Amino acid sequence: MNQPYYDKMSRQLFLIRHAETSDKEIGETDLDRKLTFKGIRDAQNLNAFLAGVSPNLQVIIHSHAVRTTHTAKLLAESNPTIQLITQPSIYHATPNNLLKLIQQLNNEWDAVVIVGHNPTISALAQDLTDQAIGGFAPATVAGFQFQVDKWAEVMPRNGLLTLFKEPNIL
């Protein structure tokens, strides 16, 4: 028998585009691009914002690119219990690939951040809800709530968009 929507466990997911980066320098690969000073400040502000809206974040999963790794580390600064997980597949992921990653998350986690890249992050955010979402500037966060018992039950358009913030309004 299916449980009513409100009886299921609530899970939070935050999709974040990495903070602002510098242009590639000569001899530098796209993976090596670093955050700008503005990007660092925006990620620090996002850290403070997330600590206020979801103080129980458990894990931040990010690609292996320097910019997402640095963004993730800055997001975790205020909470040393947050687990950082590098997932290289996020770098070239499609929205469907990221959805599959979400569906395979550890069910012991109920508050997760994924730090990734555009256009995938913004496309996935749009897929997860029936609400209109614009593009993602660097350091933009979209927060979702899912009334599911297991992450495997997360499907397109079954997320409730609970927040959407760009760095200039943090």
Care to describe what's here?
The chain is α/β, with parallel strands linked by helices. The protein has one domain (14-20, 32-169): Rossmann fold, CATH 3.40.50.1240. The protein is 27% helix and 21% strand. The protein contains 4 helices and 6 strands, in the order βαβαβαβαββ. It has helices at 37-53, 66-76, 95-103, 120-128, and strands spanning 10-17, 59-62, 83-86, 111-116, 141-147, 160-165. Strands 3-2-4-1-5-6 form a 6-stranded mixed sheet, with helices on both faces. Helix 2 links the parallel strand 2 (59-62) and strand 3. Helix 1 packs across helix 2 (66-76) and helix 3 (95-103) crosses helix 4 (120-128). The termini are far apart. The model is unreliable at 1-6 (pLDDT under 50).
Keywords:
single chain; 170 residues; alpha/beta; Rossmann fold; 4 helices; 6 strands; 27% helix
Average pLDDT figure: 92
CATH fold-type name: Rossmann fold
Lateral arrangement of strands in the main beta sheet: 3-2-4-1-5-6
Number of strands: 6
**What is the global morphology?**
globular
Query: What is the CATH class?
Result: Alpha Beta
Give the helices and strands as they follow along the chain. Answer: EHEHEHEHEE
The count of helical stretches stands at: 4
In short:
The protein is an alpha/beta fold and 170 residues long. It has helices at residues 37-53, 66-76, 95-103, 120-128; strands spanning 10-17, 59-62, 83-86, 111-116, 141-147, 160-165.
